[in-house]
Design goal:
The structure is a homodimer. Helices cover about 45% and strands about 15% of the residues of chain A. Chain A has about 325 residues and is of the alpha/beta class. The model of chain A has no long low-confidence stretch (mean pLDDT about 90). The structure holds a DNA duplex (16 and 16 nucleotides).
DNA sequence: CTGAAAGCGCTTACAG
DNA sequence: CTGAAAGCGCTTACAG
């Protein structure tokens, strides 16, 4: 494809290819005069070293593998944005891997390893400790640096960046309680996400501290299916608060509640997690926990670069700050 | 990293490394007995060929480069999902490149080429024909197959997959006109996206066919800034219809209109483009053009595989079907 | 059908 | 400071 090789540069600059390689990788080892000459030729020819050949020779590909389950989820996109920006800054390329079915975990990992990436960012937050274990073991066995990006797990020795979901949910629940709510529901997802599990725990802690009764419901994300469930919850209960694991669920719940004549937030307070653009577009405007998803991506990529370069890393489990955004539903 | 090499397999299977390579790449050239023996060893050892070495030797990396401008945009995520799924199916890896600033175009392209990908999917839909030209020329010069994924351009000879935005906007506008609306605004984006340009054209065609007066406004995506503009539009005019280039803008506009007491859709019809999950969550529920963004990704990836393998491709400019989703605002 | 050998485009000790 | 040479782990004509 790219016809210009290191040989072309070398012959044109009247040096050996070793020298060209050095001005690229260890410029300080080359006499300034030679270096400048080579650099000029590189520039003239528009030479870029073949990343594949370089990867083979140096056993470093300056590529990181990003493992995702469901690309489609909105938060993933922003997190990827953060990852990309920082990767670019540190000159890493990004290879994307998706694990569509749990059965594919090991196979995907073999792929990742075969692709010779220098490190892995794991954003697959479906809660399956056994599978997570496989991931960790596979990667450890080849000494591949890994960081969990917004994935909560019991592996305390794996570098992680995220937020303190437990605390965030705790604070949010507590805030509702302080506002006088006594029948607060937690609406989680049917599918198990590790982060949602933590939110649930935080909710439970606040509820039990206040001696209230915990009430947890689970929904699929699907609006059509939610409708009857939400209606049922709102019909049969003296519910006066609802915390949803995701903004979209919260808005969906909010809509049903309003349709049924509930005054928000007097009769019913509602809150979600994420603070997407659409939180502001709901009516009334949704209150929620703001998740710095872009930053989570950026910071985890940065952490990974440190790990790949054996830099000293003070903190391996980074919790980014969260915030309660109070709008109109709380 | 991966310690098991083709040599290990060869010696254990008592064949030469050439034979191992053949069972992997040209199995039909190997005697069945030998093939099975080798396959067994591969299995036992869990051998995966080093993709980098393979890429260097064969000059095929079975990797495609995906060039994106703003990862953060919601539609990109779903499109990426389609790309990933099909890439996986055809055993291609995906490398992600972002072009953050226009100045980076050429530099990013050099990166892409240096990374030795076998083909490129270009999803950067900011309208800049000159820059698009650079992209095309750079890639053509190294004979790199490329497909424009949801990018509209004047380069009719570049394979493209998307929808007929002009027609979609035309139909949508026409539908509003048929419903008796006479003062229909088109609300586009300040930033130039090639697809939005087409939408504008379709809108204009329908408007002029009906001898109505075209009215185009542009907004940033930012809700805070939109508010006053929308208020202004709604205040000063006998507007009775609004088509927004994006769902989020449509919902935002809808909210302001309702706040000002407009009855939807009697006083004012509103429609958007995309059909995100949130279109259903607005109140009243947003009518819009449904864009098959996942499919656009999937189909363009499929098209690219054909191009990379020099398969005959009947259609190089694929327009996927769109649809008007009528909910409550139209 | 199989093996020996050259080569893909680099990096990196090793000499000098 | 610079060059000759080996080697990274594969693929692929070329013989046989």
């Amino acid at each position: 494809m790219n016809n210009i090789t290191i040989y072309d540069v070398a012959s044109r600059a009247k040096v050996s290819l070793a020298t060209v390689s050095r001005v690229l990788n260890n410029p300080e080892k080359v006499k300034e005069e030679t270096r400048i000459r080579v650099l000029n030729v590189i520039d003239q020819l528009g030479y870029r070293p073949n990343a594949i050949a370089r990867g083979l020779a140096s056993r470093k590909t300056t590529t990181v593998g990003v493992i995702v389950s469901d690309m489609t989820r909105a938060s993933i996109a922003e997190t990827l944005g953060g990852i990309c920006d920082i990767a670019k800054k540190y000159k890493y390329a990004i290879k994307l891997f998706s694990i569509m079915r749990v059965e594919d975990v090991e196979d995907t990992l073999k792929d990742v390893i075969a692709e010779q990436v220098d490190g892995v960012l794991y954003l697959n937050d479906e809660l399956e400790e056994e599978n997570l274990k496989k991931v960790v073991e596979n990667l450890k066995s080849v000494r591949m640096p890994i960081v969990f990006c917004n994935v909560v797990s019991d592996f305390s020795n794996i570098p992680t960046v995220g937020i303190n979901y437990e605390l965030a949910a705790y604070e949010l629940t507590k805030k509702m309680i302080e506002k006088g709510k006594k029948n607060i529901y937690f609406i989680s997802t049917t599918r198990k996400y590790s982060v949602n599990d933590k939110k649930e725990q935080g909710y439970l802690r606040a509820i039990s501290e206040a001696n209230l009764e915990p009430k947890i419901e689970r929904t699929t994300g699907d609006t059509e299916i939610n409708q009857p469930l939400f209606r049922y919850i709102l019909d049969n209960n003296k519910i006066d608060g609802a915390i949803a694991a995701r903004d979209s669920i919260a808005v969906s719940f909010l809509n049903v509640a309003r349709f049924m004549g509930k005054r928000i937030p007097e009769d019913l307070a509602v809150a979600g997690f994420q603070n997407t653009r659409y939180a502001k577009l709901s009516r009334p405007m949704l209150s929620c926990i703001h998740l710095p998803v872009y930053d989570i991506g950026a910071v985890s990529m940065r952490l990974l670069t440190k790990l790949m370069n054996d830099e000293e890393t003070v903190e391996l489990n980074i919790m980014l700050p969260h915030a309660i955004v109070e709008r109109e539903t709380l």
